[in-house]
Design goal:
binds pyridoxal-5'-phosphate; alpha/beta
Length: 485
């Protein structure tokens, strides 16, 4: 049999790929430049969904053919978070130049899991920048992860193993009395997930009620801690919020830090987006006490506007950070010289070994724009939230459902005697379906709220004016329909 010709995935013609690459880049940049002209969101039609459920092609469509499929099936149906009027959940926008950084990341395609190469040094520099911007000491440890959820998981793994050194060898079930964690009822569900994944059991995450401003009630926390100790539980960690997902509430982080010192508890702060308020001189006092935490989780793909995905966790005690993750393996042996050794070893600081070079886009964007620009953008979003809250406050048919300490506004359309939950659900869906804006919904004190979370560098004040105008217009129409119907 004649030998099979050897193949590669490199192009047969680099010139053809170059021409395609230029076309693709032009098309994508045009798409970004003209975002405003398109609806924020539109549903994926049935025929497209069907096309996206087909089996893998046996033979390829070629470069142009595959790209055409992308243009037809993917490009028209994004989530919308790049659009100036996307304010749902807590999503970041990305930036055009960071997309180029992503291209460089993919071209290098380096495995940033360690080794003697530039990537770990770049990432360590990014982490050092984060420490200094958020008030953590230079001696702290840190790692870039996929996002806030994994950042919380890594931090709580360190907290768990610091509370009971036997866990690493004997597992969680061996100790006397359940390790117990404490967080406000407004805490993000990634903390529940982490607690469950770590084998701690969600019953052992005590959800402490909040006060009227959605901040953890310290008196209740003190009482429950005392009761739990008396009942033979082992309190190990308090989780504070620097910006809750629902309303942006910031727990009394200084008081929580004091309590944790007094009671020898690990103090973790979930600052997924709110931690970044520390970039701004004027907003920093709101979250300054996060610098006293044992660990701090935050996202750079939220309020640093970086493309997905990149989050970070900082841990004050480097040994505690490594404890859950560091293992010995002959195939990962470090030699004295050559490609393997490096003193920043992400594989020992989190669950991932092979990993993307996430730090490059952060590094390039910070070099391009400088910290001051990000600080101004964070302030801009906070000012926009205050502006929106003002519009809502002054409008007879709108109601604010929570204080606005940061960048989140929770509101609803209001008509005396109407079923406000049903009306506001409908308003939210119509605002999204008409492509006007994408806020999200939540429930506060039993009331359905339309929730606007501004982590968007493209939003301008006029977008908020339009949003309010449309909510009122749709609210009136829905109320009239419900009266008639
Ligand atoms: C307060 C808070 N914590 C954690 C997370 C989870 O972050 P990620 O979605 O990046 O995993 C979020 C996400 O919105 C959040 O708002």
């Amino acid at each position: 049999m004649p030998p099979r010709p050897e193949e590669t995935l490199d192009p047969a013609s680099w010139e053809e790929l170059r021409a395609h690459g230029h076309r693709v880049l032009d098309e994508l940049l045009d798409w970004l430049r003209t975002l405003r002209e398109r609806p924020v969101w539109q549903p994926v039609p049935e025929d497209v969904r069907q096309a996206l459920a087909q089996p893998a092609p046996r033979e390829g469509l070629g470069l142009a053919g595959a790209w055409e499929e992308f243009e037809r099936l993917v490009l028209p149906y994004p989530w919308g978070n790049v659009h100036p009027r996307f304010w749902g959940w807590v999503n970041g926008t990305g930036t055009p130049s960071a997309a180029l950084a992503e291209l460089a990341t993919a071209v290098l395609n380096t495995n940033a899991g360690g080794g003697h190469q530039a990537a770990p040094y770049v990432e360590r520099q990014v982490i050092d920048w984060c420490k200094s911007l958020l008030g953590f000491p230079p001696t702290a440890s840190g790692v870039l992860v996929t996002g806030g959820s994994v950042a919380n998981l890594v931090a709580l793994a360190a907290a768990r193993d610091a509370a009971d050194r036997e866990i690493v060898s004997r597992g969680v079930s061996a100790g006397q009395g359940p390790l117990t964690l404490y967080a406000s009822s407004e805490t993000h569900n990634s903390v529940d997930k982490a607690v469950r994944l770590l084998g701690l059991g969600h019953e052992n995450l005590r959800k402490i009620p909040v006060t009227a401003d959605f901040r953890l009630d310290l008196e209740v926390l003190r009482r429950i801690l005392a009761e739990d100790r008396a009942a033979g539980r082992r309190p190990c960690c308090v989780i504070g919020n620097a910006g809750t997902v629902n309303t942006g509430a910031i727990d009394d982080l200084a008081a929580l830090a004091d309590l944790c010192v007094e009671q020898k508890l690990w103090f973790h702060v979930d600052g997924a987006f709110g931690a970044l308020a520390a970039l701004s001189d004027t907003l920093r006092p709101l979250v300054a006490a996060q610098a006293r935490a044992d660990s701090l989780a935050f996202d750079l793909h939220k309020w640093m506007y970086l493309p997905y995905d990149v989050g970070c966790v900082l841990v004050r005690d480097p040994e505690a950070h490594r404890r859950p993750f560091a293992t010995q393996a002959s195939y990962l042996a470090r030699l004295e010289r050559g490609a393997a050794p490096n003193d920043h070893d992400p594989g020992s600081l989190g669950p991932e070994l092979s990993r993307e070079f996430r730090g490059l886009k952060v590094w390039l964007l910070l070099k391009e724009h400088g910290v001051a620009k990000f600080a101004r953008l964070v302030e801009q979003n906070v000012d926009q939230a205050k502006y929106l809250a003002g519009l809502v406050h002054r409008h007879r048919e709108l109601e604010l459902l929570a204080p606005v300490p940061l960048n989140i506004v929770c509101l609803r359309y209001h008509q005396e005697g109407a079923d406000l939950d049903a009306i506001n659900r409908e308003v939210l869906m119509r605002v999204q379906e008409r492509g006007i804006a994408v806020p999200s919904g939540t429930i506060l004190n039993g009331k359905f709220a339309i929730r606007v979370a501004i982590t968007n560098h493209r939003t301008v004040t006029a977008d908020l004016d339009l949003f309010v105008e449309k909510v009122v217009e749709i609210g009136r129409a829905v109320s009239a329909e419900s009266v008639r119907g």
